[in-house]
Write a structure and sequence with these properties.
The protein has one domain (23-223): Uracil-DNA Glycosylase, subunit E (3-Layer(aba) Sandwich). Helix content is 41%, strand content 15%. It has helices spanning 25-32, 67-72, 79-91, 123-140, 150-157, 163-166, 185-189, 194-223; strands at 5-6, 58-62, 98-102, 109-112, 115-118, 144-148, 170-173, 178-182. It has a six-stranded mixed beta sheet with strand order 1-7-8-6-2-3, with helices on both faces. The protein is globular.
Length: 224
């Protein structure tokens, strides 16, 4: 696939009943804690805001918090997050140079006795939570936006696109940022066949290595 421009949908996110626009990521997290834009807040333990340096140039977007994240209030600290940490290190990406967040900020699940099983957010829930991602982007001004999976793609671009159609290529976005799509690390955890696992792992590392190359070039430009 040749490099091309992707234009994010111009339709703005709906207005929200907040007294003031957040001026910092910590203030934004406080506002997220009060969010009732969709019904997911009713059953989740707490909101899980994004996490990372305000100076991060890379924005990593996942799908939603899992059970561990919902209980801790921090993104990507469960099994998928641990795998992501390993993959980023192997690919030469320092996590502290990335801001990690999710398309949907509350855990959606089906109760099964004492267990809570992940349930994929629907389009309405993703679109409702896109307002918060827009605010994170406005505060961070990231140079590279990385979508981990289809839900993250929809939230970042404002429309659904197949991961396979965008994966592994860095595209220009309107507004000056660039965009990279890959799979969510949870997809690797679901694989049973060892050969499939090895192939998926190599592909995931290849995608993440492009983040490392982008950071190197971005820092070189900044140093000029």
């Amino acid at each position: 696939m040749e490099k091309s421009q992707i234009v994010i949908r111009a339709k703005p996110s709906p207005a929200i009943d907040l007294l003031t626009e957040a001026k910092s990521l910590s203030a934004l997290a406080g506002q997220e804690a009060e969010c009732t834009r969709c019904p997911l807040y009713k059953n989740a333990t707490q909101v899980v805001p994004g996490e990372g340096s305000p100076q991060a140039r890379v924005l990593l977007i996942g799908e939603q918090p899992g059970d561990v994240e919902d209980r801790s209030g921090r993104p990507f600290v469960g099994p998928s997050g641990k795998l992501l940490d390993i993959a980023l290190e192997r690919a030469g990406v320092e996590r502290d140079k990335c801001f990690v967040t999710n398309a949907v900020k509350h855990f959606k699940f089906d109760p099964r006795g004492k267990r809570r099983l992940h349930k994929k957010p629907d389009a309405g829930e993703i679109d409702a939570c896109r307002w918060w991602l827009d605010r994170e982007r406005a505060l961070l001004q990231p140079g590279l936006i990385v979508a981990l999976g289809a839900t993250a793609i929809r939230c970042a671009l404002g429309r659904s696109e197949a991961v396979s159609q965008l994966r592994g290529e860095i595209f220009d976005l309107d507004g000056g940022a660039q965009f990279l799509a890959t799979v969510h690390p949870s997809s690797l955890l679901r694989l049973k066949d060892e050969s499939d696992k090895r192939q998926a792992w190599r592909g995931f590392l290849a995608d993440l290595s492009k983040i490392a190359s982008w950071i190197e070039k971005d820092e070189a430009r900044a140093a000029r």
